Amino acid sequence: MYRSHTCGELRMENVGNTVTLAGWVQRSRDLGGMTFVDLRDRYGITQLAFNMEVNAALGEQARKLGREFVIQVTGSVIERSSKNRNMPTGDIEINVSEIKVLNAAKLPPFTIEDDTDGGDEIRMQYRYLDLRRNPVLEKLRLRNRVALETRKYLDSKDFLDVETPVLIKSTPEGARDFVVPSRMNEGQFYALPQSPQTFKQLLMVSGFDRYYQIVKCFRDEDLRADRQPEFTQIDCEMAFVEQNDILDMFEGLIKHLFAEVRGVNFEGPFPRMSYAEAMERYGSDKPDIRFGMEFVDLTEIAQQKEFVVFNSSEMVLAINAVGCSEYTRKQLDELTEWVKRPQIGAKGLVYVKYNLDGTFKSSVDKFYDEADLKAMAEKAGAQPGDLLLLLSGDTAKTRKQMNELRLFLGTQLGLRNPNEFAPLWVYDFPLLEWDEDSERYHAMHHPFTSPKPEDLHLINTDPGKVRANAYDLAMNGVELGGGSIRIHDRDLQSRMFDLLGFTKEEAQAQFGFLMSAFEYGAPPHGGLAFGLDRLVATMGGSESIRDYIAFPKNNSGRDTMIDAPSPLNDAQLKELGIKLS
Questions:
Q1: Distance in angstroms (rounded) separating the CA atoms of residues 393 and 401
Q2: pLDDT digit string (tens) for 516-529?
Q3: What values do phi and psi take at 460, rounded to 5?
Q4: For residue range 414-470, what is the model confidence (pLDDT) as tens digits?
Q5: Which member of 299, 385, 430, 534 has the greatest number of CB atoms within 10 A?
Q6: What is the DSSP letter of 567?
Q7: What is the pLDDT of residues 493-524, one digit of tens each?
Q8: What is the CA radius of gyration of the chain?
Q9: From edge to edge, which strands make up the β-sheet containing 272-274?
């Protein structure tokens, strides 16, 4: 037996007991006559005491212990003379009588502490060391709790956990597939699933009624803080349901998770907002509603004068930064430079200060008099002490730019509390979006999303106006998940493929199996998938999902710890029938 107790387990009631512990050396302190060693494992830290006067040889051995040495000790539990109220085990220590080094360790490239001196790059390279740190361990504990409570909730609602294949057929709609060559079928390839979409629909055709899976998915797309090439979904599907049935069911799941894991109870139903309203008020289909600063359309007022920039714009938008009229010229110049960055793309920023004395100061004073500026302020609901910030241009771009500015200011002004959670259902997305490059429509979600029944008459005459029977759950400016009511009628699905530019042959080659299944009695069905990584990160108050994944990739899609991806040798390539140019 390597240990009788863990390093986070012992308390005052254990005083007098002889125990054996095993773990890693967190740190040691040599005080001359006494040496103290903090021993760590996954469960906590226990202080070990070595008295040179009682056992000099043992004390000398303790002095030679380095950070991260793996050791085993036996000794008696005693009360600490100097207690540490910040440690659960801080009332006791171990008076060590025997020590054994199980494995010596090199000096780690960064300190294994809560506040480490290691940067992201070095920590990802030595991720197995980074995982020893308590903040990372706590994030993975949170992920474990969320997964466990998800299973409990869905099982209580009669969902079946069903695994679906990982090696599937490539369907080039949406993000790029990761492909896998088949040795036994030379020249042919599997794809890794971007989601189990068609399989969960087939399970509904099979009569399974309620399916779920906590499943790995793969997308070969550009990465950022909340994206990874491989990610995990809570993937769900239900038969004989309408949109409200699904929203109610999975709103219940989110409420359950927050109550059980975070102790947060949401009162009443989650607010709901159409896509059109979300874009008009926030310029985003996943708005952060923890704070106000909603968009105000000043186009009509702003275009009454001879200011060419506004007059040549499709839209003039403003947000009201409450209490910010005392922003300095330097601060306003910094905001202007921020919105002009390539990532945002605005050509400039106009401000209107509503001073505390009731006067106005603006960057466009020469075009607008006091009455004009007051009219803008009144339209925006501004009061003395507030600051209006205006952007103009093409409607879609201006809304997007203003959304970025709103979020930036919300963060800067401390309005985005990571421990405050504001869920929002967004629904009635456009079914299709026009792609200028390919000059055809693409499905905004995927080709199996059902149009709203009341918009079906527009599908041939004005497809861009057709709304999807689709919905997303946003929280704190993050899309936690989304789904739709699916097409279950073969004729409607065939019309959708036509609309998306598939030939009959292409549709048959890629989705013939699904179309065939629909001929054998497909029930009305729909579903939803939550991004587990994003959900857990949001619950943990983080923007990046990486620390909630045990072994994440970097922004280039590389695992720097194992150095992947890596080349194949010539023999492997030959066996797979692959030639590299």
A1: 10
A2: 999 999 999 999 99
A3: -95, -30
A4: 999 999 999 999 999 999 988 777 777 888 888 899 999 999 989 888 888 999 999
A5: 534
A6: P
A7: 998 888 888 888 988 888 999 999 999 999 99
A8: 30
A9: 160-161, 210-218, 230-239, 525-531, 478-485, 470-475, 423-427, 272-274
Top CATH class, 137-272+424-548 = alpha beta
Q: Which percentage of the chain shows pLDDT scores above 70?
A: 99
Contacts of residues 431-438 at CB distance under 8 Å and 24 or more positions apart, as own/partner, are: 431/455, 431/463, 431/466, 431/467, 431/468, 431/470, 432/463, 432/464, 432/466, 432/499, 432/500, 434/464, 438/501
Q: How far apart are CA 47 and CA 28, in angstroms?
A: 9
Using the predicted structure, report yes or no on whether residue 178 has a pLDDT greater than 70.
yes
Nearest to 390 by CA among 438, 434, 448, 336: 336
- Tell whether the torsion through CA atoms of 453, 457, 462 and 463 is positive or negative: positive
CA dist 322 and 381 (Å) reads 10
- According to CATH, what is the number of the domain 12-103? 2.40.50.140
Q: How far is CA 245 from the centre of its chain?
A: 25
Q: Check residue 54 and give left, alpha or beta (phi > 0: left; psi -120 to 50: alpha).
A: alpha
Total Cβ atoms within 10 A of residue 517: 19
Check if the beta carbon of residue 236 is closer than 8 Å to that of residue 528.
yes
In single-letter form, the type of residue at position 411 comes to T
**Residue 333 tokens, joined:** 């110049």
Predicted model pTM: 0.93
Q: What is the CATH number of domain 291-416?
A: 3.30.1360.30
- Span between the terminal Cα atoms of the chain, in Å: 57
Task: Kindly list the domain boundaries of the chain, sorted by start residue.
Answer: 12-103, 137-272+424-548, 291-416
Only one residue has tokens 């997007």, namely 400
Task: Determine the pLDDT at residue 123.
Answer: 95
Q: What is the average pLDDT score of the chain? A: 94
Instruction: With residue 351 as reference, give the H or E element that holds it.
Output: strand 350-354
Report whether 212 contacts 154 (CB < 8 A). Answer: yes
Question: DSSP readout, 128-162?
Answer: HHHTTSHHHHHHHHHHHHHHHHHHHHHHHTT-EE-
Rounded to an integer, what distance in angstroms lies between the CA atom of residue 226 and that of residue 229? 11
Sign of CA dihedral 144, 150, 156, 161: negative
In the chain, the amino acid numbered 250 is F
Amino acid identity for residue 232 in this structure: T
